[in-house]
Amino acid sequence: MLSKKNIIMENILIGFLLISLIPAALYVKNRLNEVKDGNMLKDAKLVLYEGPKSLKDAAPEDLKSTSEKQRDFSLMRCTDTEIKVNGYGCYVYDTNVNHTRQWVSNFMPPISRTPIAYFDFEEAAMIEITVPNINLENVKISPVSYGLEAKIDKEKHTVAFTVTKPDQYTVTFNDSPERAVHIFANAIEEDPPAEGDENVIYIGPGEWDIESIILEDNQTLYLAGGAVLHGIVNGNYAKNITVRGRGMIDGSKLEGWKGTAAYIPLKFDNCENVTIKDVIVLNANAWVCQAFSSKKGVIDGIKIISPRPNGDGITLQSCTDYEVKNCFVRSWDDSLVVKNYAGNSQNISFKNMQLWTDLAQSMEIGYETNKGNQPNALIKDIFFEDITVLNNFHKPVVSVHNADDAMVSDVLFKNVIVENAQMGSGDGDVVPYLIDMNIAQSSNWSTTKERGQIRNITVENIKVLSGKFNPSRIKGFDEQHTIENIQIKDLEILGEKIIDFEKGKFEIDEKSTKHLMIE
């Protein structure tokens, strides 16, 4: 039988042995991960697309933040950022973005630039970014919910990370939005049409100056990878039409609309069964993707970066039965919008979206809810789910606004992550809210004399990860035009669970609201 002293010594030895095994276990785990990653890379498939050789190389003077009248606004090849994917060089574009946080009355705000790149892959993609002009202190890879860790080499000015899921990734350096890199890592394209296919308008690689393409019944516009189309794509009273592909639609050769002449890159009015899939849209002269009085549409996986005034991302006006999913929208006005301009809006869903809102609201219903002055106007059954807001710099993230006489009801905002809440920047301090529900009368947006109602709004599982602890607002118009039946659940701001309206800094008008609940 072992003595008590021997048992103690044995336990000490076992403890030392276990402690000594921890580094070995960690080493084995790391090696297994390396082998796993190596195998994944070995089995990976990768498709890269060369950009048009005719695009100008961006020079230092092209990167100045100034009015588009003061420098070249063209889409260019990026020269200060290098990207490799699985060791292969990836073409990098230099496009326009807007860091101005206030409206500019002459429609000529200062415009900046940022790099973007895209490719297709399966299994894994190891991405290495080299930025010689940036001294790297820290790096954020969004969506942060993926938990991707960057390997930073400060001496070589490189950032490296591996992705295994096709999606959109944004790399931000030193906590600054300047020169953030947008990477669109697509799945391998399935069943692309061939040039010459019946009812297919095929746009191959290279630059194409086509003023407008009007799609008719049963037609498909295909933009191949490496294609840049300078022009617009429209449909009117058309059925069963598709726009798809890896290529780009670019509006940089058009002047900004200045409140008069809007040339919408993707515009479909009075259409049925419209599918828009995967294309990239840059530098629109006004808003970007619009459907008006259309039904049964799908918008899937498109990527939008919009720097100009009134540069709304995806705008659905008087539409029904629309599904919007898997998209990336960076906009200089509302990112996702539902409005009534003629008839009603119903059964519209936005799911698995990434938003970067440089100006205005991230998810907006209204303000125009009956622009066509129709009887019994309504906006109903609108769903926003699984939304990541990378940045919001200006106005509310979640907003339900009614500036006309419509009934707005049955709206859901669920599973929203706000990575960086900076609402109230610039002239956004007028409505610096996280959540805003408001019935208003506006000289800018109201058409009807009578006011409307807001009913049955659910806001569930909203998390603000960093930035400001902004207030929220729930305010009807008066005792007859009210906001009722509002349910807010699982709201978390900067790590704090919000279980009452006071704690959440809610501004509530008691006279014009009823049946409000927070838990």
Plain-language structure description:
It is a single chain. This protein is mainly beta and 519 residues long. It is built from one helix and 40 strands. The chain is globular, with a radius of gyration of 25 Å. Residues 1-36 have low confidence and may be disordered.
Task: Spell out the blueprint of helices and strands.
Layout lengths: L3 H40 L1 E4 L27 E2 L4 E4 L2 E3 L2 E5 L14 E11 L2 E6 L8 E4 L8 E3 L4 E6 L3 E7 L2 E12 L12 E4 L2 E10 L4 E4 L3 E10 L2 E7 L2 E3 L15 E4 L2 E6 L2 E3 L6 E4 L2 E6 L2 E3 L8 E4 L2 E6 L2 E5 L3 E4 L5 E15 L3 E3 L12 E15 L5 E5 L4 E12 L16 E5 L13 E12 L7 E4 L7 E11 L2 E3 L7 E3 L4 E6 L1
Parallel strand pairs: 6-12, 13-15, 14-16, 15-17, 16-18, 16-19, 17-20, 18-21, 19-22, 20-23, 21-24, 22-25, 23-26, 24-27, 25-28, 26-29, 27-29, 28-30, 29-31, 30-32, 31-33, 32-34, 33-35, 34-36, 35-37, 36-39, 37-40
Antiparallel strand pairs: 1-6, 2-5, 3-4, 3-7, 5-6, 7-10, 8-11, 9-10, 11-12, 37-38
